[in-house]
Structures are given as C-alpha cells and as structure tokens.
C-alpha cells in the first residue's frame, strides 16, 4: 500500500492525460495543476471533455494513458477517495428518503462513525440552507432544494477536495449567492474546490485559478488575475485637457479612443501596463489643471476571454483547434 498522501502536495496534477471512447479521443493530453485551498474553474464548451476529466480525477473512469495525482495519490486508493467530495451535475437521489435519511445513508457509505453522522448531518443541512427541512422526503423537494441536498452530501465527510459540477444550475439568484459564500468559506478552511460551470460571471467572482479547455486540451490556465490581466484599460473622463497633458498620458500607454461631448468633456480610453499606474495618471492630470470626473480601470470580462479562446460552441466546432502550449 502507498503511504498516506501528504497535505503539502498539490490537490490535483495531471500530465498528458488522455481518454478515448472507441476511436474518439475526448481528452487529448490534458495538463492541469490545482493547488491546496484553490478554487479552480474548469471552463469549456459542451463536449470539451470536462465531465470525463472529472470522472477520471474521481477514479470513476480509467484514463487511456497519462498520469494523474489527486491529493498526492491515486483516486483509486480508498484513503484518497475518502477525502474527496463530489456533486455531480445529473444527480439521482433516493427520493423516497427524507433529507436526513439520505445524508445519514451517504455518511454510512462514506464510512463515517454513527456519532459523527448524528453530529454532522444537521451541520451540513444548516450550511446549505436546509435547516429544518431534513424531515421532508426528497420527492417533495424543489429542484433547488435537491441541489442543496447534493451539495450537503458532497460536504458531509469533510473533504479536502470537492468537485462541483454546475452546482448552481437549479438555484435562484439568492441560492447562487449562498453557494458562492459556501465555496468562499471552503477556501478559507483550506479546502480545494474544482468547479465546472458555464456561468462565467459566477466563475469570475469565486475562482482564483481557471483553465480553459476545448476538445480535450487546455488552451490557457493560470491565476484569474493573470489570465484576465494582460489587457488593462482605463477610462478617463475630464475637461480642460491640454495637449501637454495628453502627451504625458501617452507616456503610460496608447490612447485607444478619444471623444469629446458637446459640453467639452473629454473621454479617453488608455491602455496601461499595470494597475499601480492609475494614481500616477490621476496625479499627472490633476497637476495639469484638468478637472477629473472619472478614472476607471476596465478589465475584459471572463466571457470575452472565453469567446476569444474557445471561439464557438463546442458541439458546433468542426475541427481541432490550433493550440498554444499547455502548461502543467
Ligand atoms: N461513456 C461515453 N461513451 C462514449 N462517448 C462519451 C462517453 N462519455 C462522454 N463521451 C463523449 O466525450 C465527449 C466529451 O464529453 P464530456 O461529457 O466529458 O464533455 P463536457 O465538457 O463535460 O460537456 P458538457 O459541458 O456538455 O457537460 C463528448 O463528445 C461525449 O459525447
């Protein structure tokens, strides 16, 4: 038997991971790395191989080739599996059970002690917003309540790494905010979260690292700020812009657009390298005697990056993409 995985190993590492179904290779040399305590967004169009990857990381599907380590070991090792949580996208629950019975049953499947289950079930019900509803049968739950119950079962055994596949697809806006808070709390507790979601605004709010995947390969991955960061623009609105001040602004970066409204207020869009240039730009403009009304950094939305990288809906994509080198 291998030794228990150390907690200082990454949560997930894959190298050249591949999976074929028949002649179709759906995961094609995937390299990802997820650190401990990271919230990692795994993004890609339909059919990109995301669920297949998650199933390999959970030990539910065997890779055709390549390497993967989860919490420092193999997901086929029971000691590793016991430390994983999973909320599948398409869950099928024992709907004849009450919420309480369902969680007790899953606690038993996870090998928790009875005393632990008794203490833990009310805690997770409370955490997912189902306090007081555990006595009702699942077939009387709404879709959102079922998704909350699924999240509760994923968190029941205090996992170190949780896989959440579209965890808010059935939830209303309040439910989505609550799940976002749960994910943030998990990160604060040092739990790693692997999030599959098509809701890019949600991913942008909660994830600190992301990978974009298409046709089974990583197109780009990294810290969210790096992935988004290359293209910082600032919108500047002012009056009394002198030619000298405009020249000085140009030393920071190109003036991409310049418009003047009928009242004489000028709006500039300036390309900057770094966020810490913003106060310098403000100082310079105020020093030139301009009245500064607005200086707003504008980053591209995650959706813009997704469209730029992934280009089109996955299932509609006719051919293999031209890839930049993926990194482990
Ligand atoms: N058991 C299977 N047998 C054959 N093909 C499969 C199997 N599971 C998945 N596939 C195929 O593998 C490809 C990737 O599917 P996968 O479910 O991993 O994509 P996904 O990125 O999770 O998509 P979605 O965002 O739509 O959930 C698809 O073309 C799918 O049809």
Automatic annotation (TrEMBL):
Protein origin, superkingdom = Bacteria
Q: Name one GO molecular function term.
A: ATP binding
Q: What's the short name of a Pfam family annotated to this entry? A: ABC_tran
Q: Which residues form the ABC transporter domain?
A: 12-240
List the keywords (alphabetical): ATP-binding, Nucleotide-binding, Transport
In terms of PANTHER family, this protein maps to: ABC TRANSPORTER, ATP-BINDING PROTEIN
Q: Which family does it belong to?
A: Belongs to the ABC transporter superfamily.
Task: Output this protein's name.
Answer: ABC transporter related protein
Lineage here is: Bacteria, Thermotogati, Deinococcota, Deinococci, Deinococcales
């Amino acid at each position: 038997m291998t030794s228990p995985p150390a907690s200082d190993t990454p949560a997930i590492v894959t190298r050249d991971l591949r999976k074929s179904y028949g002649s179709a290779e759906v995961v094609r040399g995937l390299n990802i790395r997820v650190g401990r305590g990271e919230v990692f967004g795994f993004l890609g169009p339909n059919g990109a191989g995301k669920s297949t990857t998650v199933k390999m990381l959970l030990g539910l599907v065997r890779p055709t080739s390549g390497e993967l380590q989860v919490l420092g070991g193999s997901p086929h090792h029971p000691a590793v599996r016991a430390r994983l949580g999973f909320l599948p996208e398409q869950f099928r629950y024992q709907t004849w059970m009450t919420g309480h019975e369902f969680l007790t049953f899953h606690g038993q499947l996870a090998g928790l002690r009875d005393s632990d289950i008794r203490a833990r079930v009310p805690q997770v019900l409370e955490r997912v917003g189902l306090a007081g509803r555990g006595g009702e049968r699942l077939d009387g739950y709404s879709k959102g309540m079922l998704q909350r119950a699924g999240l509760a079962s994923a968190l029941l055994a205090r996992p170190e790494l949780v896989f959440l596949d579209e965890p808010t697809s059935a939830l209303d806006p309040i439910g989505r905010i609550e799940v976002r808070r749960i994910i943030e709390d998990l990160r604060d507790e040092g739990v790693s979260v692997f999030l599959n979601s098509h809701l890019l605004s949600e991913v942008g709010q909660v994830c600190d690292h992301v990978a974009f995947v298409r046709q089974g390969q990583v197109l780009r991955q990294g810290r969210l700020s790096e992935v988004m960061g290359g293209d910082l623009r600032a919108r500047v609105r002012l009056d009394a812009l002198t030619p000298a001040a405009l020249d000085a602004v140009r030393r920071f970066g190109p003036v991409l657009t310049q418009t003047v409204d009928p009242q004489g207020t000028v709006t500039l869009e300036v390309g900057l390298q770094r966020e810490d240039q913003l106060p310098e730009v403000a100082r310079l403009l105020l020093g030139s005697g301009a009245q500064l009304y607005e200086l707003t950094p504008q980053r591209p939305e995650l959706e813009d990056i997704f469209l730029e990288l992934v280009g089109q809906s996955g299932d509609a994509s006719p051919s293999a993409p031209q890839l930049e080198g993926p990194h482990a």
